């Protein structure tokens, strides 16, 4: 099976979709090596940029790749609006499947089309997006989803939303959740550790609500610091200004984007993780924290309840008092926090990248079968 995967989400900072893309590629290669006797996978990575060249990390060394010096915006406009140029032309090869890691099709002449839809927040809140996402996704995603031969989603929540909002039959959708990292809990949580938020500082992540909740807790004795780990978008300017001034200055710090090789050490210093997003298609930081036994308080929205389960408190992200109460419970009740951490470890083990690869491969097979039926 010849598959072309759009690797551009992982070209720069591997957060969110980029990390999902990289880890899925790794898992596919591990489970379906190209020279295996059964189910061989001939996988090619695609990238394009005017300034950034594709430099694969050592864990993907030797993977066939196509890197074209074409500006991302130019190529996206041509692909999204004109369905041109086809993958075969750009890659100078033939494929059975093209896989786009976002909702819009990677066009081809003959290959089956697979898209991944991580969430549909862009439909209800385009103001939280920018560039091509704001310009193209709300207008085109429904049509592309209907034209795709197969749709991958990271959660049952997103699957239900795609069915409901786009009128897609459930049989066309494959849930392909991320896997937990192969980390082992280091033992006792640091009792003097910090509170951690891990993610891009953007409106959907509800950073402002988190700061409101944290400010309410500052009167408590021995309140841990709050660490914000993630890339700051232009929308983050008011939050960064706020944490530089009293009462948050000296208590909240932004440490920026964390490279993949250093994520674990940031988690290791955390007493708890807070994920207050208004909506998540999955929530990889929750899974990463659980894998290390770090208790989590998360919003009761999107896919977060599906990921966290009974391993931590779920709260209304629009209510800073409720968010503060959830955090306070984990800080005040060590037995409860330890129980949440232990349940989280067990729950994280249910999410495996090998299973993700198997689901993706099956989706490719079903996409090829659907394409053949359409062309017959």
Please name the CATH architecture of the largest domain: 3-Layer(aba) Sandwich
- What's the number of helices? 14
Distance between the first and last residues' Cα: 20 Å
Shape summary: globular
Mean pLDDT: 95
Count of domain modules: 2
- How are the strands of the largest sheet arranged? 3-2-1-4-5-6-7
Detail the poorly predicted runs.
none
Strand content: 15-25%
Order of helices and strands: EHEEHHEEHHEHEEHEHEHEHEHEHHH
How many beta-strand elements? 13
Structural class: alpha/beta
Radius of gyration: 21 Å
* Helix content percent band: 40-55%
CATH class of the largest domain: Alpha Beta
CATH topology of the largest domain: Rossmann fold
Major beta sheet summary: 7 strands, parallel
Q: For the record, what is the CATH homologous superfamily label of the largest domain?
A: Glycogen Phosphorylase B
